[in-house]
Write a structure and sequence with these properties.
The complex is a heterodimer. Chain A is mainly alpha-helical. Chain A has 11 helices and no strands. Chain A has a domain of 185 residues: MetI-like fold. Chain A is 71% helix and 0% strand. By secondary structure, chain B is mainly alpha-helical. Helices cover 76% and strands 3% of the residues of chain B. The chains are: A mainly alpha, B mainly alpha. At the A-B interface, helix 1, helix 3, helix 4, helix 5 and helix 6 of A face helix 1, helix 3, helix 4, helix 5 and helix 6 of B. Chain B: It is found in: Cell membrane. Chain B: It is a multi-pass membrane protein. Chain B: Pfam families: BPD_transp_1 (PF00528).
Amino acid sequence: MARSMTSPALLLGYRLYVGAFFVFLAAPLFAAGIFAFNDSLFPALPWQGFTLDWFFNDTEPKLGMFHDRRLLSGLYYSFVIALLVSLLSVFVGTTNAFLFVRREFPFKNALYIVMIVPLVIPGVILGISILVFASNIANAVWDAWEVEISLLRPGIVLVVLGQFSFIATITSLVITARLRKFDTSLEEAALNLGASRARVLFTITLPFLRPAMIAAGIVAFLVSFENFNTTLFLVGSESPLTITMYDRMAKIGSTPVLNAVSFFLMVGSGLLALLSVVAQRPGQPD
Amino acid sequence: MSRDARRLSLILLFAPFALWILLLIALPHLGILALSMREKVAPRVYEFGFGNYAEFITEPIYWNTLLRTGSMSLLVTFLALIIGFPIAYYIAKIAGKRARGALFLMCLIPLWVSDLIRAFGWILLLRESGVISRSLQWMGLTQSGIEFLYNDAAVIVGLVYTVILFMIVPLVSTLDGMGDDMIEAGYNLGGNSLTVLRRIIVPYAMPGIVAGCIVVFMMTAGSYLTPILLGGKNSSWFTEQIYNQFISRFNWEGGAAFGVLLLLFTSGVVWIGLRLSGQSLANTVARS
């Protein structure tokens, strides 16, 4: 521990600063969560007593989130989108890991940078560029053959592709980092013992990558679930939860049912994040 | 494997990467570049020209918004670095081994909560009927409620909050790799705390600092929800202009030009940052 520079008073001040920082981090999340349990029509003080109505009540004006059709359908679409995005991103992340760790090809270093770039492009720009590109293709096909490709109009497919376009970078980086740690002599041993290439891949290499693939999948799921900027431009009639919540906030203003959704999402993503930490732990000393 | 099989498998591995980059990144970006240089002369009649960019230059509200977005993003990046560095240093170097993991995890938890919920939390705290205003009233410090929302300070607080984790995480991982003996050596050679910080710690942490700054700057400049929800009607953030052009005014050509400008502007700032600090994208962002 590099403590020699700090006097006790300074160290105490430092600790207070760190404590204050964590209060700053927690405060808005706490505010967003706690008012889900306040028995009031507004998410504000004073405290009117504890209630679970904003989750389970089935009548207006205190319609709970589990009886609110639009919020539930938003939750459902978010789930479907996030699942598709994470499957697709883990698949491409894995092929990218093998490509960049195991293979040699021209311009490899430049292409590796290209792989990182989507992560630093603003989400709004990814959204509009994919919207424009898809519409151009759909329009061109219509002009040429009078065939309407509804998949290329705003909707679930475009949302999935838009989110995938930058989430694939995250999964590629996570899985690449793991594959770099793999000891190739394990594969050689199996090959010498007469295993086929496919068998080696499925019994040795992929099981080694599994923790990273699971962790990358969870991260992809969470990032997709919370994405707003890219989704905003690509969304059709099937709005995912963040868009539904935003509409509600903009049109009706804040109601405690939004706090209930926030609480639900925070608990859900907290558990998933914990799961991803646990998934990455075995056999990966830091 | 035979040479043909090797070639085939290379092509198969390359295909997903190529399709992803080509269809979702390269061609769409060329697409908005082409769209931005197209002018509408009559319904369904277009010609090549720089009219959309000319409009950006002649209309002060547009370039003022871009400059405002840029300068506020730089301020947010700077604040995130100043506030986040001591926290990262504490986690990496001062906290005990067990506290370190817990603190790091606590840092990560807000990362997995959407922007929307974070902004919503700040609204509940800062607005006129919000927690802070009500608490001040209750303590008798003020008679009427105070509106803390809908000003630049609220936007900056919200943005720093949203992005600071992306500053802390790369900083912790670089500082983690620094041996304590380097710091001890600095003191033994007669340096004071400031010298050690300036000559040893900061240079060592440079890749992490640059990585954090790049990600934070890009996220801030490209953010949409936080400035709009916390800044209200007159937040004038550049992404809002892009949204207005695309969705409200259905002026895709103008919106595409704004998109290209935002991209050029932010990549320009990042490029200058990399040049000044002597780092590259591969050894900063990719590592974090």
